[in-house]
Amino acid sequence: MSLILDHVSYTYPGSAHGLHDVSIDVKSGELVAVIGPSGSGKSTLLKLVSGLSTGHSGRIALGGEDLAGKPVHQRELGMVFQSYALFPHLSVLDNVAYGLKLRKVATNERRRRAQELLETVGLGSYGASPVTQLSGGQQQRVALARALAIDPKALLLDEPLAALDAGIRGHLRDQIRQLQQRFGATTLLVTHDQEEALTMADRVAVLKDGRLLQLATPRDIYTRPATRAVAEFVGLSTLLPGRVSAVDRVDVGFAELKTATGSRAAGSTVCALIRPEHMRPDPEVDAANRFLGTPGQQRYLGSVVRYDFLVAGASQRFLAESPVPAREAIAIDPDHIHLLDE
Ligand SMILES: Nc1ncnc2c1ncn2[C@@H]1O[C@H](COP(=O)(O)OP(=O)(O)OP(=O)(O)O)[C@@H](O)[C@H]1O
């Protein structure tokens, strides 16, 4: 079932903040992750979809049905929050069965369904346990089972992994994604963690100041950000302001970069974006875009070393990343230079 936000705007009473003309179409069975800096409107968007906030303009529709005027409990959404929001006085099984009880599903049937979901999330033997005795990661799996138990029209995941430590987060990220795909759940995931968004989502929506900057696949968001703001928010990069000097050249002041052939007119003001892994150390002498310089600070990250590279004769510092330590020269493959309009 699709979830459509069509030109949705909302402002908080007495303020200019909120959401401005946001359109996002979550296709049936798709997971769209919403990311953006603090205050960009992620929570506002979720509150509007869930019905916790009302009074937007534009249209929010689930399965073709406009949600305007529909109270929270009638929207048939499965929700998972950072805080788990489980009922501490209920057992694990009763937590999962809770939504079914509200829907007046018979006792045996709801216990059967809850047990089945607990098994799906790997907690089949925990049904009788008090929910408070479970670890954070286990509690979040209970919350997910509870959200799925009602066979929701869509899933809303609000920072579901933010309270967990890194090791569990990675594991649970994979598990949530597998379940979301197995159930074919149309899902909106709000997260401040860009790695989570890129690894879990079919598409990523980047918000800033209440506006949608880009909605695209994780690969496109990373390799072809639409604006400098997206590039700066997602991943690390070196950004070189410059001017197009030919169809395949950009003058960045201290050098002329060779780029892939583009369609921008000579003289266009652009910004060249280069990701750290595309700064190739120790290139052959005739490599395109070869720069001599001095390695600066180095950070050992296990599989790679990330380092600053100070280009000779320029104030510009490159950010590079490679499996081998920094050397005295670096090259940038023209195909990996992405130009942004300035
Ligand atoms: N109740 C409110 N009244 C007035 N302004 C609000 C209210 N709640 C949020 N805002 C403002 O609306 C904007 C969007 O806030 P929102 O909470 O949606 O951002 P967010 O992206 O979820 O941020 P965070 O990552 O910090 O949770 C911000 O400028 C915020 O200050």
From TrEMBL:
Keyword Nucleotide-binding among record annotations = yes
Keywords attached to this entry: ATP-binding, Cell membrane, Membrane, Nucleotide-binding, Transport
Q: Name one GO molecular function term.
A: ATP hydrolysis activity
Tell me which Pfam families the record gives: ABC_tran (PF00005)
What positions does the domain ABC transporter occupy? Answer: 3-234
What's any GO biological process attached to this entry? quaternary ammonium group transport
**InterPro entries associated with the record:** AAA+_ATPase, ABC_SmlMolc_Importer, ABC_transporter-like_ATP-bd, ABC_transporter-like_CS, Mo/tungstate-bd_C_term_dom, P-loop_NTPase
Name used for this protein in its record: ABC transporter ATP-binding protein
Origin species, per record, is Pigmentiphaga aceris
